[in-house]
Amino acid sequence: MKKLWRTLFYCVVIGYAVLTLIPFAWSILTSMKSTPDMDKFWVPLSSLTLDNYTYIVTKFPFFRWLLNSVIVAGSVTIGNLLFNTLAGYALARIKFPGRGLLFYIVLAVMMVPGQVVMIPVYIMLANWGWINTYQGFILPFLTSSFGIFMMRQFFLALPVDLEEAALIDGLSRWGIFFRIALPLAKPALAAQTIFMFLGNWNSFMWPSLLASSDDMFTLPVGLNSFHWQYVAYWNQDLAGTMFMTIPMLIVFLIFQKWFIKGIATSGLK
């Protein structure tokens, strides 16, 4: 009976995996179809072509868009890893006046939709002359209330005895952070890396608002160029989407073990 239930479980899981892979496989096939065959459900394998990929690379500033996405997503991810980790550790371990109030402010910011602050932030960036610049894409997003909360919860779960022993041995607060707390925080850092990189890599709304020239487009904004008023070239659009998917898969495959562990141990079950 136990083997029967296990077999049934694996059948359900495999069936669900196949269902989730069908849209991805359809996207790959559509990205290799010619424009006349774009609306056809099935085409011979011999008619599939890589012309859509070549068209994107040669007819559009694709590599510029790719570079912009790498710079923006990479910089924002590194900034969040730095500032969120420092803030989370301070809220978890350092006792200072107003610590509780600051934590409640972080929680309150998590509840505010991003659309609420969109206009004030845009006006502020415009007054500073940061529209269509890298600093406008990066600096307002170097911290995240969710990242601060996640790191605080993780540090609270670490045994404080390790840090107290190190403090007795004469290690400074910075030494405790870099030599003890930070190495133990690899699961949370990996989870935060995936969240921040994928979120900013796929970001469309803010880059589309802040970018006013082709040379500052990120990949999501640039790929939107394939959508015209009355027609959309989905084969070319999906070819660009495949280009976007590769870095996300690489990042997730590198950090997936730590990502799963971080979710399980950071108070976000």
UniProtKB/TrEMBL annotation:
Residues 66-255 form the ABC transmembrane type-1 domain. Its main location: membrane. SUPFAM superfamilies: MetI-like (SSF161098). Signal peptide: none annotated. The keyword Membrane applies. PROSITE patterns: ABC_TM1. It is found in: Cell membrane. The chain crosses the membrane at residues 7-29, 65-89, 101-125, 137-155, 176-198, 238-260. GO terms for cellular component: plasma membrane. It is a multi-pass membrane protein. Keywords: Cell membrane, Membrane, Transmembrane, Transmembrane helix, Transport. GO terms for biological process: transmembrane transport. Belongs to the binding-protein-dependent transport system permease family. This is ABC transporter permease. It comes from Tumebacillus flagellatus.
